[in-house]
């Protein structure tokens, strides 16, 4: 049984998709905790209602990024995680924190990386006039939004799309690919070789 700790900053819809899939598909894993940097993160309510341990490590309570990351790491490690899942966790992480979870921390980013790292990805995509946009699940490295890619999902950009409509269609895809990737991880189907992720054939 693998332990998964999920970090959220807000709504937590990706976290909810993962919790639901883990239950419905009876993964060899349990969601050990959902942790947020914000006490008002909606996702915490869903987790608590599903009997999952929750915790808040408020970034505002720490004078520096380093001290926040140390406190966060201590809280996460109370649950002996095999995997840390960033699900809309809106903090830039320090290199020692990232190194501590090397090869066992995943993130979802709302663009087809390496296009549009950073914030406001749907606006970036609309401004660039791309005709295909999407989401990426990747392992986290110290290089923001540039870790080894595990899975991507694409959507067409439609002529009348707004940030809202485009983000909604991308989010639907996020809810499909993120649980799938977490499942592959807990089933030991992922390997990283020279920055390239290989997925066990059975998983495809
Ligand atoms: C998701 O669209 C996720 O891809 C994005 O935040 C949203 C969180 O939604 N993450 C990032 O932008 C990370 N840089 P959720 O809280 O409903 O899962």
UniProtKB/TrEMBL annotation:
The keyword Transferase applies. N(1)-(5-phospho-beta-D-ribosyl)glycinamide binds at residues 12-14. GO terms for biological process: 'de novo' IMP biosynthetic process. It is an enzyme of class 2 (transferase). The record marks 145 as: Raises pKa of active site His. GO terms for cellular component: cytosol. This is Phosphoribosylglycinamide formyltransferase. (6R)-10-formyltetrahydrofolate binds at residues 65, 90-93, 107. Its EC number is 2.1.2.2.
